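seq:
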Amino acid sequence: MRDITITNQVIAHPKLLRVARLAARLQAQGGRLALAVDSAEGIQRLADAMAQAAPQARIDVLVEIDVGQGRCGVPPGEPALALAQAVARLAQLRLAGLHAYHGRAQHLHSAAERCDAIAAAVQAARHTRDLLTAAGLPVPLVTGSGTGTLVHEAASGVYGELQAGSFLFMDADYARNEREPAQPAFEQALFVKTQVISACDSHAVCDAGHKSHAIDSGLPTVALLPPERALRYANGGDEHGLLYADGPQARLPALGQMLWLVPGHCDPTVNLHDFLIGLRGGLATGVVERTIRVDARGALT
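struct:
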């Protein structure tokens, strides 16, 4: 995002101005909007937007530290302290704590690897929190975690908020995680319905290709089949999926048969559809209760 300077007056980016107005509206209704920041420039731009669009309001700011994700965030420790001090100096901003999310750890399939990754994240978050506290800065919240590691952050005594979301649906990639005894067992709840549109001796073809489900975390699996009917889904392109018998005793589905796929990654699969069909009582024997509009469909900016 770029600012435009005219006669020494900074005009904030339109997106930041919209954020500032939203923060003001939420504050007026008793709510709060928080943003994560990882640069002095971003902090100043946010403060300028608040001063311009909502001078009577303040916005919560979380200093983001990189605890292993390798995406956004400053290094833990002194760099984070410097940013927190910059936030504290600006009247338009309120230091709300630290953002310490390790997304990569959620999908480490080994339980030991996940445990080790979050132990390092907790140590980094604790060290940074203690530095800020020693400098007289409040740290009311450390937020992070996810569905794959939430028991570790919850037990750490450092994190005050868990950002677990995928547990609501789960997906094929999470199903590959080695189970930890302390981790809650979440069921698969998101499925893509598909129909067999072609069949031959070697394989069958269904009508759910890559336009129907996200493949960034791998291909989907076929749900609700007994072992002797096990099928393997393979890449068939944008509109098609290839189905192969997965085992010497497995049988291919017949032409016209309906099947259910467990997507590889639930979040971006939901974003591909306008509606979800809500069933109560389970996929096999449940009944349709309501149609749920995906409000954020296509809302990518």
